[in-house]
Design goal:
heterodimer; A: 12 strands; about 35% helix; globular; B: mainly alpha; Methane Monooxygenase Hydroxylase, Chain G, domain 1; about 75% helix; about 0% strand
């Protein structure tokens, strides 16, 4: 069932037409991988989904992105509300210069805790502790940090910092999580942990991941979209894309003969 | 600019090795048939030599394929090509073995009094040799249509095997002196029939390599003598299918 429907998405950065007429829908509780050579518009695309491009001067977004039935680019929509619903994890782990606990507790402290009815309420100390533990467990980090929650997040390894960022994104209970090359700064063991985590997370969340690592896309995703110079070239079931892509451009890219 | 030059070269070498192996397998079947049909015992050694060379190539190609999978992480058409190579070298090796088995029974046929010709072995052998040739050609030329055509001819081979089996049985019943050579003739017919099956396996892999479609068992087996002799497993519905549909099937 689609949770995100993108219709005729066009993005310009000044003169540069970065995304051209992209139309696709993303399924709920599935992992969608976005692949393509550098400069093809992958990051631009993923940053449109939670309106992160709004922060870039000269960026113009046209078209519709409908999440749960409403267009997130409608005039009355507050981008902050969108980002509560659609979390994001970046290429380089970027924890706040605070303790491990504070990193995860930061968003619930500001936005309150999301209740079952979708509304937020101010968290008590106990509730905050529960949320931090739940988020860290969900991000498969709790066992490694439970005895040093007060320590600076910078004392963690790169892989742990990235899982901390995932826990931080989970703390406000988003529906969708966007990952922009989450493993490119990590070693193979930390990468494997994140990949296991992604597959575990899709039970409860919809995941979109931009990756340069083709094998990673093949391993973790249900569907794969291939972008080239701002255009969506091919989008389909991952197994099919990696066994018999329908477009020659896709085959050239995934077999390493281009890009 | 073409990238992955080393990978490209490795694939090219692999293709050449498999083509060489396939050509040797074809040659060994041709010589084995020539040996028994034209009574040319001197060809036995040649078939044995080819068998050894085919086996050596199988080992070499398997190593090449595993190296490429391990080091180059191939996908899409490249991965299908490598998986095809890995599968068909087993078929080619078996073809070489059967050719060798055929010449092994040559001595036992010495007293067959021309039974070889009477039971139409030459005709069957000719058809099987052409199937091996065309399977090899379909691989080299990446021709799925030529590969699919092999299956119709396999039905013909199955019929010939059946006919030959009954004919030899009749000769043996009429003249018990022919029992020994008759059994060996049935063995040869069986080896030829198996060689035809392996040619079809190669054809099936060529179809997969080029189109990513897996052939439906219905396409593979339209008319088989064993249908009347054993239970045939239930066949999946529909036409050919892709790998990601396999689990559903």
């Amino acid at each position: 069932m689609p949770i995100i429907e993108i219709k005729d998405l066009n993005v310009h950065f000044g003169e540069n037409h970065a995304l051209k007429n992209v139309t696709m829908s993303l399924d709920k509780n599935q992992i969608t991988a976005i692949i393509g050579p550098s400069g093809c518009g992958k990051s631009t695309y993923i940053r449109c989904i939670n309106r992160m491009n709004d922060l870039i001067p000269g960026c113009k977004v046209e078209g519709e992105i409908v999440v749960d039935g409403s267009n997130i680019y409608a005039k009355d929509v507050d981008p902050v509300d969108i980002r509560k619903k659609i979390g994001m994890v970046f290429q380089k782990p970027n924890p706040f210069p605070k303790s491990i606990f504070e990193n995860v507790a930061y968003a619930p402290k500001i936005h309150g805790l999301v209740q079952k009815d979708g509304k937020s309420k101010k968290a008590t100390k106990n509730e905050l502790e529960e949320t931090v533990e739940w988020s860290l467990r969900r991000a498969a980090l709790w066992e490694e940090v439970k005895d040093r929650l007060g320590k600076s997040a910078y004392t963690l390894s790169g892989g742990q910092q990235q899982r901390l960022c995932i826990a931080r994104a989970l703390a406000i209970k988003p529906e969708i999580i966007l990952f922009d090359e989450p493993c490119s700064a990590l070693d193979p063991i930390a990468t494997a942990k994140i990949e296991d985590l992604l597959i575990d997370l899709k039970k409860d969340y919809t995941v979109v991941i931009v990756t340069h690592n083709m094998q990673q896309a093949a391993r973790v995703s249900d569907k794969t979209a291939y972008f080239y110079i701002g255009e969506l070239i091919e989008y389909g079931i991952t197994e099919q894309i990696f066994e018999k892509p329908t477009k020659e451009l896709t085959e050239k890219y995934i077999t390493g003969r281009m890009g | 600019m073409t990238s992955r030059i080393i990978f490209q070269n490795e694939l090219e070498t692999l293709n050449q090795d498999v083509s060489t192996m396939a050509t040797l397998a074809r040659e060994s079947v041709g010589k084995a048939v020539q040996c028994i049909v034209n009574h040319e015992p001197e060809l036995r050694e040649e078939v044995e030599r080819l068998d050894k060379e085919i086996y050596r190539l199988e080992q070499l190609i398997e190593k090449r394929c595993l190296d490429i999978i391990g080091l180059q992480t191939p996908v899409a058409g490249d991965l299908r090509t490598i998986s095809t190579c890995l599968k068909i070298i087993t078929d080619l090796d078996r073809i070489g073995r059967y050719a060798s088995d055929i010449v092994e029974v040559y001595d036992c046929l010495a007293s067959s009094n021309g039974l070889v010709r009477q039971v139409n072995i030459p005709n069957m052998a000719e058809l099987v040799t052409s199937m091996v040739e065309d399977a090899v050609k379909a691989f080299i030329e990446r021709d799925p249509e030529a590969a699919r055509e092999l299956f119709e001819r396999d039905d013909e081979i199955d019929r010939l095997y059946d006919t030959n089996f009954r004919a030899v049985l009749t000769y043996m019943m009429e003249n018990p002196h022919l029992i020994s050579s008759g059994i060996h003739l049935i063995l040869i017919a069986r080896y030829l029939e198996r060689i035809a099956d392996h040619s079809c396996n190669i054809g099936e892999r060529v179809v997969y390599m080029v189109t990513a479609e897996r052939m439906n068992p219905k396409e593979r087996k339209k008319d088989h003598k064993l249908n009347t002799m054993c239970e045939v497993p239930k066949e999946p519905d529909g036409d050919s299918y892709s790998a990601h549909e396999l689990e559903e099937k």
